[in-house]
Amino acid sequence: MGDEKRELPPIPDRLPVTVVDAHTHLDACGAKTAADVAEMVDRAERAGVARVVTVADDLAAARWASEASTWDSRVFAAVAIHPTRTKEFGPDEQSEVERLARGERVVAVGETGLDYYWDYSPHDAQQAAFRWHIDLAKRLGKALMIHDRDAHEDVLRILDEEGAPETVVFHCFSGDERIARRCIDKGYILSFAGTVTFKNARGLHEAARIVPRGQFLAETDAPFLTPHPYRGRPNEPYCTAYTVRFLAQLRGEAVHEVAEAVRTTAERAYQLPT
Q1: Annotated binding-site residue? 82
Q2: Is 237 in contact with 24 (CB distance < 8 Å)?
Q3: pLDDT per position as a tens digit, 158-210
Q4: What are phi and psi of 106, to 5 degrees?
Q5: Nearest CA to 54 among 74, 32, 26?
Q6: Keywords, A to Z (predicted)?
């Protein structure tokens, strides 16, 4: 059983329409070189996950993601400083994040936001950094990719106070139907990770049912949050296909319809070539 827990889940049948993994961490999945990235994205493509957005949470990861996005045409990047790492976020860090965020293949500013679950960074430092990233996304005309953990009210308040960018993506959406409706009304996009497939995630299930097409994405957040029934095992971008199929079942829609919605929304949100 222990060995099985360390194994990747099987690669599922190819989706009828290709999709984008809207949020993954290729470096945390173990990719270091261009060959590693190609091998990982090859596996994803076998499942119908044709493109991925690899996301940074600190400066080293941001530099790597930006570089990795130039190694393979199927890979794009998002860069920011994760809220749990904002205890020290001064002019030098801001200058480097902005330099990287201007990259041609960097399609979003993220992941940024608020995390009140972990006690690594004071709330005031997180909020100041979040406001700075909001401004950066607006200045660059790129999507804002939000990390929101146990902080729904403050995230929504700060977006209102600062004025949200044109495109806001709630990565690994964790709210219930009530929070989802508030986000939908604002035009925000909700990205569902493997957590939506968990049997006890009733609030997420209700949220996923009500989100209109054009306002939801699918992601892995790999190597974390592997979809059911492989929860606890390593995750990779190809597992997006499991989540897409679950969303289709949950919403009572055809798999090809949900996959098409996921792909076209990702293309619009991240300004990807169609």
Answers
A1: no
A2: yes
A3: 999 999 999 999 999 999 999 999 999 999 999 999 999 999 999 999 999 99
A4: -90, 115
A5: 26
A6: Hydrolase, Metal-binding
First-to-last C-alpha distance (Å) of the chain: 43
Residue 5 lies in a domain: no
Task: Determine the residue type at 171.
Answer: H
Range of the domain at 183: 19-270
Contacting residues for 11 by C-beta, under 8 A, at least 6 apart: 43, 46, 47, 238
Q: pTM of the full predicted structure?
A: 0.96
Does the annotation list 147 as a binding residue?
yes
What pLDDT, in 10s, does the model give residues 97-123?
999 999 999 999 999 999 999 999 999
Ligand-binding site membership of 171 (annotated): yes
For 47-150, where are the alpha helices, taking DSSP H only? 59-68, 91-101, 123-140
Starting at the earlier edge strand, list the strands of the sheet with 143-149.
19-24, 49-55, 75-79, 106-115, 143-149, 168-170, 189-192, 216-218
9 assigned to some structural domain: no
205 is in an annotated binding site: no
Establish whether 4 is an annotated binding residue: no
State the CATH number of the domain containing residue 81: 3.20.20.140
Asked if the peptide bond before residue 83 counts as cis, ω within 30 degrees of 0, the response is no
Residue 190 domain flag: yes
Number of domains, the chain: 1
Asked if residue 17 lies in contact with residue 260, where contact means CB atoms within 8 angstroms, the answer is yes
For 272, counting Cβ atoms within 10 Å of its Cβ (0-12 exposed, 13-18 middle, 19+ buried), the class is: middle
